[in-house]
Amino acid sequence: MLSASLKSVLQHARYFPLWSALTAVRWRSFDSRSGGLGTTFRAVMRWFPPARSRFDREAKRVFPDMKRSTRAKLGQDMGWHMGRTLFEIYHDAEFQTQHHKFRASGPGLDALKEAQRAGKGAIVVSGHFGQWEAVRAVIKMNGLESGAVYRPHKNRHYERRIRTGIEAGGKPILATGRVGTRALVRHLRNGGIISILLDEKYSEGVRIPFLGHDALTSLSAAQLALKYDLPMIPAFGTRIGDGNTFRVEFEAPIPHTDSIEMTRAFNDSLSRRIMADPEQWYWMLRRWDGA
C-alpha cells in the first residue's frame, strides 16, 4: 500500500510542472498558449543539465563536428518545437478544427483516397518530426479517419491527457502489445487507416541505418503492408513560418519489395527531413541504444 501511495505522489509531482504551465496561460489564445509551452521547453533545454546531456549525446552522434554553441541552440530550438507539439496534442480536439493551418500536398494523399474507394485499408508512417498530428488532421479534412498506434505513458496523469488528445485526431487508438496488434490487424482488414510512428527504438527490431547509424527498427508496418496488400505511405507535417502553420506532405507509397527494404526506404525519407530541419525532430528518443 505504501508503495502504491508513493508511486501516486511521485506521479502527481512529475505532472505538476506541466499542469501548472498549462493552467497559468489557459486564458490566452491557442497560438499564444502553444508558443508559451514552447518557450518553457526551450528554457528546460537551456537550464536543465540532464536534458542537455541527453540531447548532446544523440546530436553529437549525427553532427560530430558541430560547434558547442550551435548544438546548444539546436537543443533549445528542439525544445521550442516539442513544447508546441505537445500542447497541440493535448488540445487536439481544437487543433484538428484549425483547417487554415494545414497546407496539404503529395501523391500519397490521392493514393490514400484511392485505397479507401477500393475498400482497402492503408498504413500511414511518420515519425516524431514536426507535428505528426497535422497528418491526421489533413486526413480528417478529406472526409477520412485514421486511427493511431501509441505507447502508453507510465504516469497516469500524462496518459489520461495524451490519450484523450490522440483520440480527438481519429479512432481507434491502439496501444502497443499483443492486444493492440490484434485490433490493428482487424482494423486494417476491415478497410481502416492507421498511422504509426516508426522512429522509436524497438528492442526486437532489425538494425537499419537511420541518420547514418544503425538503429533497431520495427518491421511491423512493412510486414502488414505486404501481408494484406496495403499502401504504406510516408507523411510528414513540417512546422513553417512563425510555427503556427504546417506543410503536410504525403509521399508516394513505398513500393512493395521486402519488409527490410521498405523500412529502410522510410528511414531514409525521415532522415532527409531531419537533416533539412533538425530542430523539428525529437532527439530524446535514445534511438540508437542497443544497436
UniProtKB/TrEMBL annotation:
GO biological process: glycolipid biosynthetic process
Principal subcellular localisation of the protein: membrane
A GO term, aspect molecular function: acyltransferase activity
CDD domains: LPLAT_LABLAT-like
CC terms in the record's Gene Ontology section: plasma membrane
Keywords: Acyltransferase, Cell inner membrane, Cell membrane, Membrane, Transferase
Keyword Repeat: no
Domain of life: Bacteria
Subcellular location: Cell inner membrane
Record's protein name: Acyltransferase
